[in-house]
Write a structure and sequence with these properties.
Layout (H helix, E strand, L loop, with lengths): L5 H11 L25 E3 L2 E8 L8 E9 L2 E7 L10 E4 L4 E4 L1 E6 L6 H7 L2 E6 L8 H9 L7 E10 L10 E3 L2 H14 L3 E4 L5 H14 L2 E4 L6 H8 L3 E2 L4 H5 L10 H11 L2 E2 L3 H10 L3 H7 L10 H8 L11 H17 L21 H10 L4 H6 L3 H10 L17 E4 L13 E6 L2 E4 H22 L1
Parallel strand pairs: 2-5, 2-6, 7-8, 8-9, 9-10, 9-11, 11-12, 12-13, 13-14
Antiparallel strand pairs: 1-17, 2-3, 3-4, 6-15, 15-16, 16-17
Helix pairs in contact: 2-16, 4-5, 6-8, 8-12, 9-12
């Protein structure tokens, strides 16, 4: 399957015409907690989506004229609209002509501020996998508060980030390990602290990585992450790493001598045999490629209207220009990664949506999930296959590797009620995910007006805070 430049050209056009981008609504600096607001815009209780078209993610077509009942955080009944009795006490959401699908998962994030969380939710991302943050970020507290219904945000799964100690890690917050003994202690402490996953980074030595993997298997905590250079892709997959966090990691561990399409089948075969998941992360690679050696592109990114909804820290961090002084051109590599992604998908390797947001300049929390979906489609996946990477696949992945997590990712009885109501069919085009009627997270329904209100309040508070600082 041949890759295409269409997505790249589309994004370049958007960057050069930033003023034409649609303005979403912003976020609030204050802590956002659940309040008892009963009504059509914000409701938690028995809820019925009546006479809706269902995108269950059990197949690639929608079920027409169905009703879904939600009680608490779970889907408790669904079926043809004329067969489901809606309790009189239930709040009814009229779904006539609309499409109901599972909420999305972003399986590669780096949340650093509580304000980041709402941007995901307002874009239909009801679950995130956080693959590392600095130690002073209380991410485990936020995870537990969301689970307890005390904080509004997507359900969080949290990895603890580890790298080798032979050099300073590029990312602050990594725990640096130099001996196998330290690796075993790290795994035990990580498990005891309540982390869901371990993320392995590039420079772990072979001895340390092997000890880490052995102890993680013994402790029952899964390891995800980069293409650790010492074992290489074949070695880390054989060792039991269950997810590769970037398709580009294959460039550094399997295609090191030659970026040759003839080597794609062997990369696919080893991944399929290991049963590992892959986060292509094409949206992140695309935005890096676009600004690689191009200061003007970064300037346009920093003029995007959505920047008003982003924490000021991220705006200042992006403005440092990590990539604009680099030499060369990454577009051909982006096209190669699209080809690799298509081959992985065609072979049956399970893919996951992931954006690496908001740590990369231009990767806006929540908003960038739409770029990731677009990139998958432009790599040759059908809309259903792209949506599966953000719904059914992450549900299976996290249920399989995080003990005690509730089922989610499909519309079925017994699944967590994380849902998006859309005006148009997402199976016809992933662009239709931008036309939301509302989002349900863990059984709480927020229509688009309510989400816009919350977002606008956050943007106002950011603006006011910057004025106070000036």
């Amino acid at each position: 399957m041949q890759p295409t430049r269409k997505g790249t050209l589309t994004v370049i056009g958007l960057l050069l015409g930033a003023a034409a981008l649609a303005v979403f609504a912003g976020q609030a600096r204050r802590r956002i907690t659940i309040e008892a607001v009963e009504g059509p815009v914000d409701f938690a209780g028995d809820i019925a989506f009546v006479d809706v078209n269902l995108v269950t993610m059990l197949g690639d077509s929608a079920l027409t004229h169905h009703t879904v009942l939600v009680h608490g955080e779970m889907i408790v009944a669904l079926g043809p609209a004329d067969s489901i009795a809606v309790p009189q006490s239930a709040f009814r959401v009229d779904g006539s002509g609309s499409y109901l699908m599972p909420g999305l998962t972003d399986a590669h994030t780096h949340v650093a501020f509580e304000e980041d969380l709402l941007l995901y939710l307002a874009n239909g991302v009801t679950t995130i996998v956080n693959l590392g943050n600095e130690p002073d970020v209380p991410i485990l507290e936020w995870r537990d508060e969301v689970a307890a219904g005390e904080r509004l945000g997507p359900t969080l799964f949290v990895a603890r980030f580890v790298d080798g100690a032979r050099r300073r890690s590029r990312i602050r917050g990594a725990y640096l390990l130099s001996t196998p003994e330290a690796a075993r202690v790290f795994v035990s402490e990580t498990k005891s602290a309540g982390y869901d996953l371990i993320k392995a980074y590039n420079s772990l030595s072979l001895r340390v990585y092997s000890a880490l993997m052995e102890e993680a298997a013994a402790q029952g905590i899964a390891v995800v992450g980069h293409g650790v250079r010492a074992p290489g892709m074949q070695g880390l997959l054989e060792a039991g790493q269950v997810m590769v966090a970037h398709a580009e990691e294959y460039l550094y561990t399997h295609f090191r001598r030659s970026i040759d399409p003839a080597l794609i089948p062997s990369a696919v075969d080893m991944t399929l045999e290991a049963g590992a998941y892959v986060v292509p992360n094409l949206s992140a690679y695309e935005i890096i490629a676009l600004q690689w050696g191009k200061p003007r592109v970064l300037e346009r990114l920093l003029e995007l209207p959505e920047l008003g909804y982003v924490h000021p820290f991220w705006r200042k961090y992006w403005a440092r220009g990590r990539y604009i002084s680099r030499q060369g051109d990454l577009i051909s590599r982006l096209e190669f990664l699209r080809e690799l992604t298509a081959a992985l998908n065609e072979a049956g390797v399970p893919l996951l949506l992931g954006t690496d947001s908001p740590s990369i300049p231009g990767m806006l929390a929540g908003f960038s999930i739409h770029d990731d979906l677009r990139n998958l489609v432009e790599s040759g996946l059908t809309p259903y296959e792209a949506l599966r990477a953000g719904t059914r696949n992450p549900g299976k992945f996290l249920n399989g590797y995080v003990p005690g997590s509730a089922p989610f990712g499909m519309i079925q009885v017994g699944q967590r009620a994380d849902l998006i109501l859309l005006r148009d069919d997402p199976l016809a085009s992933v662009e239709n995910l931008k036309g939301r009627v509302g989002v349900m997270v863990r059984g709480r329904w927020l229509n688009e007006a309510r989400l816009q209100e919350l977002m606008a309040g956050l943007a106002d508070s950011f603006s006011a805070g910057e004025s106070d600082d000036s």
